[in-house]
Design goal:
Alpha-Beta Plaits, 3 domains, 9 helices, D-Maltodextrin-Binding Protein, domain 2, alpha/beta, 5-stranded mixed β-sheet, 31% helix, 285 residues, 15 strands
């Protein structure tokens, strides 16, 4: 069986379980379950702390795992990202009291407090900045007020908590993170295991496509077909079928969900009618 690590709690857990369910895999019914077997799909899921997943995967005990890019890099584990999943997005930034630093080059000789020591230390080393990094497990904003550090490095979403602490971000983002599928670096999987890994990835990619696109159907006159198809080119090309009424055709194509309303407006202006969209629940490209 394919052995897969899944986050057991936190912001990664719920969306990961939802995506796996959409991909056709069984998921645990109670949060106390640490392991379940999906015999129909020949998969075994292990529910682990998100911070530990990269370590388990790099050890070879588990074939692949779902974790955050930030947690993968911070762990320093011998594992690599093989598929971004598009949820649990976050941005890491430096922050300090106004006037402390204008850019990362000003951090030389300073102390940086963070919950992600591995990421920050590597980032500073890559830039050739000689600064100290202090690891804290949480509430890093207070590190400056208590004199533990001059600068913090943390996840920034709206920046409200930083502003409330009298801090401001500076410099370019340290990194942008999201949920990813990982596997051990340089793994030489058996042929059967590798085919299962690829099948797993195809299923997740199908979910990502299904979430990104909708199916659009509409009727239009033949003389407007080329203009209509330019708006809905589909992935390869749209399906076009003649209608019973002469001079009309039915068109079907996948379109980006976020652009669907605009495309419907443009098609209507061209004279298309009976325009509708439907959700895509599964897909293989």
């Amino acid at each position: 069986m394919l052995r897969i690590a899944v986050p057991n709690k936190g912001s990664l857990s719920g969306p990961a379980a939802e995506m796996l369910h959409e991909a056709g895999y069984q998921q645990r019914r109670e949060s106390k379950e640490l392991r379940i077997v999906d015999p129909e799909n020949e998969v075994e899921f292990f529910y682990l702390r998100p911070r530990d997943i990269a370590i388990y995967v790099s050890s070879g005990r588990l074939d692949i795992g779902i974790t955050g890019r930030d947690l993968l890099i911070d762990s320093g584990a011998n594992a690599e990202e093989i598929l971004p999943l598009g949820f649990a997005r976050s941005t890491f930034r430096f922050a300090s009291k106004p006037g402390t630093a204008g850019g990362v080059e000003d951090l030389a000789g300073m102390t940086v407090a963070t919950s992600y020591e591995g990421i920050v230390a590597k980032h500073l080393a890559d830039l050739g900045i000689d600064a100290s990094v202090v690891h804290l497990d949480g509430a890093v904003e207070t590190a400056i007020e208590l004199g533990v550090a001059e600068v913090i490095a943390d996840v920034v979403e709206t920046g409200t908590s930083l502003r409330n602490a009298g801090l401001e971000v500076f410099g370019e983002p340290i990194m942008k993170s999201e949920a990813v599928v990982i596997r051990r670096t340089g793994v030489n999987a058996e042929e059967n295991a590798e085919s299962k890994v690829q099948q797993f990835l195809r299923r997740l990619q199908g979910v990502l496509v299904a979430r990104t696109y909708v199916m659009m159907d509409y009727d239009c006159r033949v003389e407007q077909l080329e203009n209509a198809v330019a708006l809905t080119p589909g992935l390869e090309s749209p399906t076009v079928s003649p209608l019973h009424n002469e001079g009309w055709v039915a068109v079907r194509a996948m379109v980006p969900a976020k652009e669907a309303q605009r495309i419907m407006d443009d098609l209507y202006d061209l004279g298309a009618r009976a325009i509708l969209t439907t959700a895509i629940h599964a897909c293989r490209l």
